[in-house]
Every structure is written in structure tokens, then in C-alpha cells.
Amino acid sequence: MTSRLLISRLAASSCCTMADPSRRVLSIQSHVVSGYVGNKSASFPLQVLGFEIDAINSVQFSNHTGYGYWKGQVLNDSELMDLFEGLKRNGLDKYSHLLTGYIGSASFLSKVVDLVQHLRQVYPDLVYVCDPVLGDNGFLYVPKELVPIYRDNIIPLANIVTPNQFEAELLTGEKIHNLEDARRCINLLHAKGCETIVLSSTDLGSDDHLLAVASSVVGEKMFATIKIPRFPHNFTGTGDLFASLLLAWMSLTNKDLKVSLEKTIATMQGVLKRTLEFGKSKTPDGGNIAKAHLELRLIQSKGDIENPKPTIVAEIHS
Questions:
Q1: pLDDT tens digits for 261-294?
Q2: pLDDT at 13 over 70
Q3: pLDDT tens for each residue of 153-167
């Protein structure tokens, strides 16, 4: 046997007998060549915090759609399963976490159900973090057929779900006008089997801040809120960043929801402040900041990701 062939066989053997999948994430969401949304927004923070991340891109676009013009490809359900079959055949399908974000078709989302079930057979302790990207501010981003699949098939499989207010309303059929409405929505999602629910943003705050609302029914049961200071500009990729940071900190703190919220929001604030400062520096006349100058400054925020310094405290409610 040649040395090259021997090395090849040893490598294959090593793949098929993969060790403990501690901190190994499979992330299925969108990808852009330029900018930071989807997997581009989630991968770097997870890597900085010590997680291996394998990414499957549900779409691959030149840039995010907020630019008004983009080109690219959409992965279909058959292509998703082709990629996953390759992982399975090589014994690369053992993950500590699954993270899903933007998915644009009902057939693709239905295959994710099969994928979760398989991953749990391989590693029963898999933690599934689902960001059910459906829409915002009253508008759907995806076909309406995805809503019942998330509600009836995906949510019961997820450990952690991070909808915004509009998405929580879609998934429960309940409107949120106050904190008690939010609690009722969250309890409906808990009733489907999900352990931790975080409404990543709601309009229950004030002119100065949004409010995130969170609940956990595992370990120490908790219902909490945390204020999110508003910025005078809209950013893309923030929901994807939020979900990835929450995944990381819930793992690193052994499911301490309060600390995880505080560290996640601290990191988000650091990233957004740096992004806005950069945008303003590129617009000295005080005019409208170009979209390219409001792309998240993730690389420049490595220190905030590694060592967030919370200044906003989560409030625990009875």
C-alpha cells in the first residue's frame, strides 16, 4: 500500500469515528458574497466563541436584497439532501447544535424536519436553535405556506426559538399589545414542546428602546425582559447575529438565560455602535448613509464578541 493511500484511509477512518461533537454547529440559512447576513453574520461570532461551524446556504446571493438589486442561486430541497447525504456517508453528521435561519420554500423546510430527526438519532443531545424568519413589521418575507410548517412541525423539534414580535404572532395566531399578551404567546409556543423562547424584538418598549422578552421552562424556570436601545438606522443581519450569539452563550453558560441575554445584547450594542460610527465616518456631510457602509462591522468587533461587557441588566418577572 502506498503511503498516500494509507494516509487517505486513515483520514477516512478518522472522519467516520468522530469524537464528541462538543461545540459543533450545522447552520442552515442564507449567504451573501458581500456583506453580513445569514451564515455570513452567524459564522464569525460562533468561531470566535469557540464553535466549529459547518454552513449550508439556503440561498447564495451577491448581496442582501435591501440593495434593490442582487443575483444568485436558491438551494432546493433535493440539493439540500444531496449535501447532507455527503456528510452522512463520511460520518460527518454528528453535531452539538443545529441553527436554522432564512428558508424560502415549503419543500425545503419540510426536509429540515427530516434532517433534525436524523441528527437527533446520531446525537440525542443535539440542541436545535430555530430563528423562524418569516417577516417583520406586518410583512411576510416568505410564502405563507411556511407558517404552518414552522408552527406544527419545526417548533415542536426546537430547543430554542427566536422569533420577532410579528413572527410570534403569526406562529400563535395571537396579537401582542402588552407584556401579558407576549407571555401568552410564549406559553403557546412552550406548549408545543419548545424549552426556551426569546422574542428577539418587540414594540413593547418606548421611543428609546425595543424590548426583548424571554422565557425558559428548563432548569430554573424564568420569564425575563431586557431593553434594547434603538438606533436611528436600520441594519441587516441583526436577527441572524442575535440567534448565533444566543446559541453560543446558552451553551457556554449552561443555559443561564439571564446572563445569555445580557451578553448577547452587550455584543449586539457593541457591533451596532461600531457599524454606525463607521457609516457616519463615510458620510461626513451628514447625508444618508450608503447601505454598503451599514454592513455589520463584525471583524472589527472581535473584542466585543469575545468579551462582552454588559451594561443592560435583564429584568426577571414573577
A1: 999 999 999 999 999 999 999 998 888 999 999 9
A2: no
A3: 999 999 999 999 999
Q: Which residues pair with 211 in a beta bridge?
A: 202, 227
Determine contact, residues 275/282, Cβ cutoff 8 Å. no
Residue type at 216? Answer: S
pLDDT score of 20? 62
Q: What does the pLDDT read at residue 283?
A: 94
| DSSP assigned state of 60 | E
At residue 152, what is the residue type? D
Delimit the domains of the chain by residue range: 20-317
Helices (H), 95-173: 106-122, 146-149, 165-172
Strands 72-74 and 196-202: unpaired
Query: Which of the residues are catalytic?
Result: 240
Please tell me the CATH code under which domain 20-317 is placed.
Answer: 3.40.1190.20
Residues 292 and 213: their CA atoms lie apart, in Å, by 31
The Cα 58–Cα 73 span in angstroms is 9
Contact between 160 and 194 (Cβ < 8 Å)? yes
Phi, psi of 149 (to 5 degrees): -70, -45
pLDDT tens-digit map of 209-245: 999 999 999 877 899 999 999 998 899 999 999 999 9
Facing residues of 196 across strands? 160, 216
d(CA 191, CA 203): 24
